[in-house]
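Figure S7 source data.
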Amino acid sequence: MGKVNILLKNNTWKYIPWNTNSFIVLLIHKKIFKMKHIIAFAGSNSSNSINKQLATYTASLLENTKTTILDLNDFDLPIYSSDLEAKEGIPENAFQFLKILKKGDGFILSLAENNGAYSAVFKNLFDWLSRAEQKNWLGKPMLLMATSPGARGGQSVLQMAVDRFPRHDANIVGKFSLPSFDDNFSEGKITNEELNKELLVQVKALENSL
Ligand SMILES: Cc1cc2nc3c(=O)[nH]c(=O)nc-3n(C[C@H](O)[C@H](O)[C@H](O)COP(=O)(O)O)c2cc1C
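Tokens for the predicted flavin mononucleotide complex:
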């Protein structure tokens, strides 16, 4: 029986005896430890979106995870109209977005709140996605968030999504609202310890559901 160095999950090497059984165990572990892929994005098209900043920070807290951060500005879509859909069909960018969602194991989404509801750009994307595939959240685990400069931290839009998304096969495993963004977020991080702890609990919930 030979010996071989293997790389463990914590990035340390271990020298182990090597035989056929070891090979099978390694294959099982490779499957179990396959790095999960999270798609993170904001329901906003602001170039300096506070929700994108929050989604990006949240994604950075996940362990052993590959992350793709999307920007809705890269998925230009005409305003939904049933006439346009009948005439020209569903735009390619809606299918592209859905294709990326399908590649993910889970989602982090932080919604901008405009007049207590979804931003126009997100509502438009959601409408097109739901025309491409009604169950557009694909049953994958989602950490749903919102932030705003105000004290309510986008709680209205967050609740709106919590109520609606399950009809589109969302599997919401965590939710988080960050109030008063300018007071509680700085240099890419949440600065309020209590709020950060609250977010970490939600991040763990997402991790455990992947
Ligand atoms: C038309 C409009 C409506 C808004 N309505 C709300 C609101 O209802 N509640 C809220 O907390 N903030 C509201 N805001 C402020 C947004 O939360 C703020 O612009 C925030 O930066 C948007 O998120 P983003 O930076 O990710 O785009 C509104 C802003 C605009 C332009």
